[in-house]
Amino acid sequence: MEEHGVELFEQLRLQAQGAVVNDDVRRNPPESSESPPSLEEVEAILGYEFRDKRLLEEAFTDSSYSPENCFSFERLEYVGDSVLNFLITREQYFSNPSLSPGSLTRLRAANVDTEKLARVAITHGFHRYLRHNKSDLDKKIEEFAEGMKEYPLHSNGLIKAPKILADIVESTIGAVFTDSNSMDTVWTIFRGLMEPLITLKTIKRHPMTELTEICQKRNLKLEFVDSWEKTKEVQVFIDKQLVGKGSYRKKLIAQNRAAKDALNNLDTLLVQINQPCQPM
């Protein structure tokens, strides 16, 4: 089984490396009035010097930067996603010897989801080295960075994380793995960069899941009233009483915020109907 795993990751490494071997595939990037920061700074952040510098350049290049050249981080992201999932699985398995597979899966998911990895990118400044030509991306990144201040560990769906931030973390992992051909090297570098890892003590439940389960357990009628198209707002009613509302430019985030607001107000409602809320 172990041999098959090694063969798989070796295949992934070689596939990713193949994307940068042929220089004919890659041409000069578009000229810009402002040159992007040197990727040598990324090596300093990682504490790792690449033997093949082209891998690092690929890891930080979005397809929008030079679409005619078909040069982007997507293949390395694919490798990095697999490598990271394996490393987190291994870490959680040995750190929690009595934890069930279901709980291990939930813990792993929390540590590799888009928001968690996007936080890693912001915390260590990876976004400053991203080569792209997306006009609205910088504004979205700034908005997410501000939201992180309100939710220091994880918002559980209450702020919108630009997926591209998570992508470049995974592509950088893929680049390090491809360059070093070593799982241990990758984990030595990224174990610290991913701190704080989400643990059993710090993991939080998604507000939609928690609210739904509470209402089902108490046989309460839960209803979401969607006026997002007109007002960018979603309201939550429980047994026909308004208990929460949320707004955001993304409908799903507005719904999550409404659920969170309802949870914050739920104790008052349950007292009124003589069902005091007990911790779940």
From TrEMBL:
The keyword Translocase does not apply. SUPFAM superfamilies: dsRNA-binding domain-like, RNase III domain-like. InterPro entries: dsRBD_dom, RNase_III_dom, RNase_III_sf. GO terms for biological process: siRNA processing. SMART domains: RIBOc (SM00535). Residues 39-181 form the RNase III domain. Its cofactor is Mg(2+); Mn(2+). GO terms for molecular function: metal ion binding; ribonuclease III activity; RNA binding. Residues 30-39 have a biased composition (Low complexity). Residues 20-39 are annotated as: Disordered. GO terms for cellular component: cytoplasm; nucleus. Gene3D superfamilies: 3.30.160.20, Ribonuclease III domain. Keywords: Endonuclease, Hydrolase, Magnesium, Metal-binding, Nuclease, RNA-binding. PANTHER family: DICER-RELATED, RNASE II-LIKE 1. This is Ribonuclease 3-like protein 3. It comes from Momordica charantia. The gene is LOC111007843.
